[in-house]
Each structure stands twice: as C-alpha cells, then as structure tokens.
Amino acid sequence: MHKNHMEDHSSHAHHSADHTGHELMFRNRFLVSLILTVPVLLYSPMIQDWFGFSMPEFSGSQLIAPIFSIIIFLYGGVPFLQMAVPELRNREPGMMLLISLAISVAFVYSLAALFFDPESGFFWEMATLIDVMLLGHWFEMRSVRQASGALNELAKLMPDTAERVKDNGEIEVVPVHQLQTGDLLLVRPGTSVPADGEVVEGKSELNEAMITGESRPVSKLPGDKVIGGTINGDGSLRVRVSSTGDQTTLAGIMRLVKEAQESKSRAQLLADKAAGWLFYVALGVAGITAVAWIIAVGFEVEVLQRVVTVLVIACPHALGLAIPLVVAIVTSLSAKRGILIRDRLALEEARHVNVIVFDKTGTLTRGQQGVVGIAAAPAWDENQALALAAAIEGDSEHMIAKGIRQAAEERRLSLPEISGFEALKGRGAQANLNGHTVYVGGPRLLEMLQAAPDDGIKQFAEEAGEKGQTVVYLVQDQQIAAVFALADVIRPESKQAVQQLHKMGIEVAMLTGDSQAVAKAVARELGIDRVFAEVLPEHKDQKIAELQRQNKKVAMVGDGVNDAPALTRADIGIAIGSGTDVAIESAGLILVQSNPLDVVKIIELSRASYRKMIQNLLWATGYNVVALPLAAGVLAPFDIVLSPAIGALFMSASTIVVALNAQLLRRWS
Q: pLDDT, tens digit, for every residue of 346-369?
C-alpha cells in the first residue's frame, strides 16, 4: 500500500510538469464531445417529448444517438477511466472513480437497452455527463497551469559566453559551460558576471539585487567575491573563476526552487473527498436497491433500471462543477483586480494564513533610492542645494544620482548651468559653477577635500547613518553646503496593508538582506511585528521553514530571484508583478500592480471563494441525499418512483443551482 502510494506520488510530481498538455487535451475533448452531443440530444426521444419537437426520421435514424454516444464515450469518457486506475490501486476512491462508474454503467446499460427496451437508454445523460466533467476538468487544469518555467527564467540570468583572458593577455570569447575553475575573465561594464569568482583587478559596483535582494549596488575591489548572474556597473573587472556550472550560487538557488516545488504535497481537494464518500454511498444504495427490489418483484428489467438510475444520479454533475466553476470565476474576478492565480491551491489555502512575510526591497519599498531628508548649511536654502546637486549628477546612471534628480523633479526645481563636469572615481563628481568648484559625493569625498561638517550637518549625517540611509554631501569651495539622506522609498500603500492585515488577525513579518538598521527603521515606520534582517539569499527559505515549524501558515510576498526558494517554500508564494520573471514563476499568486494592499484582497477573496465552494458542495451532495433514496424507490409503495429521466432532470437542476451560486461571487469586490 505504502509503495503504491509512493509510486503515485512520483507520478504526480511527473504530471505536474505536464499541465499544459492536460489542459489542451481536456479542452479539445470537451469541444469535440460537445459538438457530438448535439445530434445525441436532438435524436433522443425523451428530449423530443420534453420540448415537443421531432427530427426527420430515416432508416437508421434511431441509431444516431447510440452511435454518437459510443464515440463520445470512447473519446471523452475513456480518459476518466484511465485516471480512475490510480484511485483504485491506492484504494482511495475519488471523483474519477465515481465519474467512471456512472458513465460505464450508463454506457453498458444503454447498449443493452438498445436490444430489449430502446426507450430506457441513458445515452443523452451519459453524453452530457461526460461533457460537463470534461468542462470542469478543463477549467481546473487551466487554473492549475504551473511552473517549471521558474528554472528557465533563472537560467536566463547567466550569460551564454564569457571573455577569457589568455596567458599572453589576449582575450577569447568562450561558451560559459567551457569555463574552468581558475580561469581569468574580463567582465566589461554593464555585462553579467558569467561565473562565481574573485576580483583580481579593477573596481566597480555590482547590482546584486536579483540574487541577494540588497537594494544598493555593492562595491567590489580586488579580493572581493562576485556572484555569477549579477550585473556589473560602470567599472571593468578581471575575475578569477572559483566555481562554475552546478557549483554556482545561482545553480544552488535553482536547486532550492526545484526541491521546494516538488515537496509541495498533493493537497486533496474537498470535492475529491466528497466524491470518495459518495462513491461508497452510491454503491451501498445501489446494492440495497437491487436486493430490496429483487425481494419485492423478483429479478426483472425494472430492478436493473432502478440500480442504474441510482448510479447515474449519484454521479455528481454538480459536484464535478462545484469547485472548478468557483475557481474559474475567482480566477477571472481576481484577474480584473490585478491578482493572477497560477496555482489554485494557493488561493484556497490563503484563508488559513496567519503570518505574512514581506520581502522589503521592491515589495514594501519601491526598490529605488529616494531623498528622505536634507540639511543645509546656514547660508544655503534646501531647494537651491538640491537643484545644484541634481545639476552635477545630471548624466549619471547611478541609483543615488537618479534619486537626487527625481527629488529635484518632484519639487519642480530649475537646475543651474554647470560646466567642466568630471567624475571622481569612487568619491563622487565635481563641476564648475560661476567660477566656484562644486562637488557631490559620500563621506570619502570629505576625506579627499579634508572638509569638516558643522555640528548640525554632522548630527543629521550620523542619524541618517544609524537608520542605514545613504549620506551624500554637496560641497562648494571646500565648504559643506548641504547633506542629503537617501533611502529605499517606502510604498505609500504599505502602511495601510499592514494595518488591515493586523485587523484580520494576521501577523506581519519582514525579510531582507539589508542591514538591521535599515530593516528596523522600515519596520518601525510600518508597524511590522517581526524582522529578519541581513538574511543571505540561500537562507531566506530557512526563515520561512522556521516559521512553519512553529505551526504557522506562512504566505511570502517577494519580487527577486533570491526570493524564489522562499516563495516556493512558503505555504503560499505571492510575487509582485514588477519583480523578476523567476519570482513570478515560483509563486502561486501574482500581484500585477505591485500593491501590497492586494495581499489583503487575496485573503478576502480566498475566504469568500471557500464559503462558496462549501455551499456548492453541500448543495451538490445534499441533492444526492434526497435524489438517491427516490431513485432507489423508497416511495415506490406510494407509486412515487423517480424515472431515470426525472433523475437526469434533477441532476441538471442541481448543476444549474451550483452554477448560479458560483456566479454570486461576482458581487464580491
């Protein structure tokens, strides 16, 4: 038993890679079966009676419904029989076995009925049952289509070729897979680092955000380590390769994503459980029916008809649609509100979440440096200082320069004309303004100019430093004119999102590679409960696992490659739309607008859709509780016997109720 279960588990892992194929298979089979069902319905005597029409008769026209039904059974029904095999093998009856039982019984009985009582066949019921189940499964697969794409996206970060420096100093271009440990590489400005290694010569700043989540560019000098897949800034580096291929950090992150993806258990859907119980109930009722009727009237065709009616009615059209319909509606509803569902179980589980972990950079914050404070020397005015700094930083692509320019734009300042711009490597920049030399740069600029800040500016700079903010000075003729504090700007919606989650009884945590000081400053401002700071990318998923060990249901919200393992490890991964493709591929839910408030919507939507699913399941099973005894002939002594036709009508009615109830979800907003 255990071995079988394991086999099934591995086949399931294999299947999850193949959802697109399944989805197309169900879609095509549904559409073909639907077209083939039209003649079956038109040529069914019962349907003609109900709606009072007749079709042209010709020799053999009475065989139209049976022939088309046989084709529908073989083409649309057989996949269900194949999928019922593992349920039988594992002795875990579910939806597939129940569907298979009903369509097989209807099929065999109808074929037999052709010869002894053509009017009593179940051809059209069987055909519509197969159509509805195919439709339900197509909806289901469409909303399940899941992610082996994450790994391809990660792989794209690695360049295909590298520039290797030969012993004689010449440079050759080689494919990355041919690199060996110890090779010397040239990494030009703006290109990706081809492998993990150590800087031998040159200095630059690398953007490591996609791997480490660190919002600031990281400066690299000889002796520093660099990570394959990160992007070089404006300096040229020579790097000695320390690990290649499967040994690189990026490959390690890819492995984590893959493991976490595979470790997700196959959560049994409620409908499957209900179908399992119904399977036993239907068999039991059918058995009792057969025995009771044989005792009452002897072995007659009518007994068979009762038993078949019981089995066909027990097969849940409504149950088959109850969940997929809600899922389909929720999927389109949430898409309109900017929430994309990649894994429907993620949305279902969201209602259980009691801790939400936000990645800081790019999620709670914008992931861009912005000016958060200015202190000017007595002779200067803040706007004048900001305009001058923005003018000096005019053409630089550096994150800090962009932040200063943006602040000047937001204040609509007109910038002074400067001339003689010159970059000071690693220290800042200088320019001329009306015969004065003006400089912009960090603390190392002050060292070079040997300029000492006055007390006000010094205190401002120290406080900014404690909060982990970047400090930039404006200097004119050796005199410090102003100091700017820059930090990753907090999104305006973040605070509201945290407050609303607290109201819903959900704890909020933050996970970041940034320093304790930066993290604590952000957490204080937003009212966040727990902070995990200075977390290395490969340890992010361990923090999630740590929370899970405390029996917490964890949702992770992130946007970077470095978040991918954590997104996959969490009970629910929510990716921010502006994030990297990898993060998006490894999450179950995606927020298109990058708005943390949408996380609140996800929880609300999850709770609303769960209520609808339960209502639908209760209705779908409840209808069976009433219809099964009637079909079995409980009221036969009072001459009330449910004919198969009325049974089928009941079945359709319950399906319509379920469909309408699911539509009520649309009022949720």
A: 777 888 889 889 887 767 887 777
Give which of 197, 201, 153, 150 is closest to 176, Cα–Cα.
Answer: 197
Q: Minimal CA–CA distance to 278: which of 140, 139, 99?
A: 99
Among 35-39, 115-119, 291-295, 570-574, name the one with the lowest average pLDDT. 115-119
399 Cβ contact partners less than 8 Å away, ≥ 6 residues apart: 216, 217, 368, 369
Report the predicted TM-score, pTM, of the whole model to 2 decimal places: 0.57
Given the candidates 1.20.1250.20, 3.40.1110.10, 3.40.50.1820, 3.40.190.10, the CATH classification of the domain at 367-489 is 3.40.1110.10
Distance CA 230, CA 253 (A): 13
Domain boundaries, the chain: 2-145+267-332+607-667, 159-247, 367-489
Check: CB of residue 467 under 8 Å from CB of residue 484.
no
Burial class (CB in 10 A: 0-12, 13-18, 19+), 74: exposed
- The topology (CATH level 3) of 159-247 is 2.70.150
For every residue of 421-442, DSSP letters joined together read EEEETTTEEEEEETTEEEEEE-
538 with 256: CB under 8 angstroms?
yes
| Residue that has been written with the tokens 């082996």 in this structure | 148
Task: List active site positions.
Answer: 359
Identify the three-state secondary structure at position 418: coil
Tokens read off for 663: 């539509």
pLDDT 10s digits, 32-85: 988 888 888 787 777 777 777 877 777 777 777 788 888 988 898 888 888 888
Cα separation values, 456 from 35, 444, 483, 532, Å: 81, 19, 10, 33
DSSP-derived 3-state class of residue 219: strand
